[in-house]
From TrEMBL:
Pfam families: Peptidase_C1 (PF00112). Belongs to the peptidase C1 family. The lineage of its organism: Eukaryota, Metazoa, Chordata, Cephalochordata, Leptocardii. This is Digestive cysteine proteinase 1-like. One of its GO terms (biological process) is proteolysis involved in protein catabolic process. It comes from Branchiostoma floridae (Florida lancelet).
Length: 212
């Protein structure tokens, strides 16, 4: 990665490269949403065209997608992702990638070294929104409504949920990550959570990756 100096704060939403917050609902496969949302933003940054891609396609065609696999299935099996509007969702659970044309793709998965939050992760987020795996099991996380989330009981080793980091900033001397969730706009700050930055809160810096 070219180590150019990242800006002191960044919010990719302000640059028009982030699609509206989704709700995983009955689909229930959070990694499918994280993979899709991060690829949407990368495509928008590269082309200037923001397209809502199909999380259903990832769910149908890449049912075992996980952190270690990254974007391998999207690159090698589906050959990119179709738009949400074009992907045929029926019959449910069947991979229908061949029935539509890919609207966006990537070439590689880039992994940030674990617990390199202060430099490498900031540089990564300044390049494109990234996927992180966090501990979302605490009641304080599930009922989060606003503010900078900072709970010392949040585990740095037992991650169970994926978020997309779309920026970072500071407020009253406290640094934070701006994270997109897939629990709908009624949760958190209209679907987002600000997580304390610089202390590996909820294990946010342990498993970080993004498309390239």
């Amino acid at each position: 990665m070219e180590m150019t100096q990242p800006p002191p704060s960044l919010d990719w939403r302000e640059k028009g490269v982030v699609t509206p917050v989704k709700n995983q609902g009955m689909l229930g496969k959070v990694m499918a949403f994280a993979i899709t949302e991060s690829l949407e933003s990368l495509h928008a940054i590269q082309t200037g065209k923001l397209i809502e891609l199909s999380a259903r396609e990832v769910s149908d065609c890449c049912p075992d997608v996980e952190f270690a696999a990254g974007y391998d299935c999207v690159i090698n099996r589906t050959k990119g992702l179709c738009s949400a509007a074009d992907y045929p969702a029926q019959p449910a659970g069947q991979c229908n990638a061949r029935l539509c044309s890919a609207a966006a793709t990537c070439q590689n998965t880039v992994h940030v070294l674990p617990n390199h939050e202060s430099v490498d992760m900031v540089h990564a987020v300044s390049t494109t929104p990234v996927v992180v795996i966090v501990d979302a099991s605490l009641t304080s996380f599930m009922t989060y409504t606003s503010g900078i989330y900072d709970d010392p009981d949040c585990s740095s080793t037992q991650q169970d949920h994926a978020l997309v980091v779309v920026g970072y900033g500071s407020f009253q001397g406290k640094d934070y990550w701006i994270c997109r969730n897939s629990w709908g706009t009624a949760w958190g700050e209209s679907g987002y959570i600000r997580i304390a930055r610089g202390k590996n809160m909820c294990g946010i810096a342990e498993r970080v990756f993004y498309p390239a």
